[in-house]
Design brief:
The protein has seven helices and seven strands, in the order H-H-E-H-E-H-E-E-H-E-H-H-E-E. It is of the alpha/beta class. It has one domain: Vaccinia Virus protein VP39 (Rossmann fold), CATH 3.40.50. Helix 2 packs parallel to helix 3. The N and C termini lie far apart (35 Å). The relative contact order is 0.15.
Length: 226
């Protein structure tokens, strides 16, 4: 499978092309603003949700899908001290940025170019998977949810944040930033697809009704998170 280095903005009319970052989003992903947003907003909310569930991921095996410029890698490594940390991104430019950050910070993380719909890793390997605003780029996002479930251990956790169809429609109308229409969903649809992918939603938080944070547990015969 050939994966892209970088992909410019596309229209949904162009068939058969995988969607990746619009050039404006790519600039945001590597900006100091994104780093601040991640540290003081996105990651902080996930820590709060985990605390409310009395779940500690310290020393666990963690996977991050769509690692971008590596802000998640730095935060998750420092906070949870994973026993194993693996991360991937579809965009090779972002993979290189993350690899540079790992080397500079002296972090023990394996980063590779990969596809969230076909994760090249063993089944039932990870205690938790983090996905930060990735699925709205992916036409086959339902397949991605099932792949994430596959690589999680029984009762493993999915920590995922996303933006809904209303926000994406606004971006397209006013900023001319396009995303696949098949990857636009209401929160009701998103919850239903999480259930279809065999996740139980443990906690959720909606910011302004457009930015959603979800903690899901992989359905299993076992009831206790290990």
């Amino acid at each position: 499978m050939t994966l892209p280095n970088s992909i410019p903005a596309y229209s949904e009319k162009q068939e058969g092309i995988r969607f990746d970052l619009h050039h404006l989003e790519e600039k945001l992903m590597i900006s100091p603003l994104k780093k601040l947003m991640f540290k003081y907003f996105e990651f902080k909310i996930f820590k709060r949700l985990l605390h409310s569930l009395n779940i500690d991921l310290y020393g666990k095996k963690i996977l991050e899908g769509g690692c971008g410029a590596g802000y998640g890698i730095e935060a998750i490594s420092n906070h949870f001290k994973p026993s194993e940390y693996v991360a991937f991104d579809l965009n090779m430019g972002m993979v290189r940025r993350s690899q540079t950050k790992i080397k500079h910070k002296g972090l023990s993380v394996n980063v590779f170019q990969g596809d969230v719909t076909a994760i090249n890793l063993p089944s039932e390997k990870f205690d938790a998977v983090f996905i930060f605003t990735v699925l709205h780029h992916e036409k086959n996002w339902r397949k991605a949810l099932k792949e994430i479930n596959r690589v999680l251990k029984p009762n493993g956790l999915l920590l995922i944040n996303e933006i809904n169809n209303r926000s994406l429609n606004w971006f397209e109308r006013y900023l001319k930033v396009y995303h696949p229409k098949s990857a636009r969903f209401t929160w009701e649809m998103f919850r239903n697809e999480l259930n279809q992918a065999e996740f139980t939603i443990l906690r959720e938080y909606l910011f302004l009704q457009d930015f959603g944070f979800f903690v899901g547990r992989k359905n299993s015969l076992e009831k206790k998170f290990k």
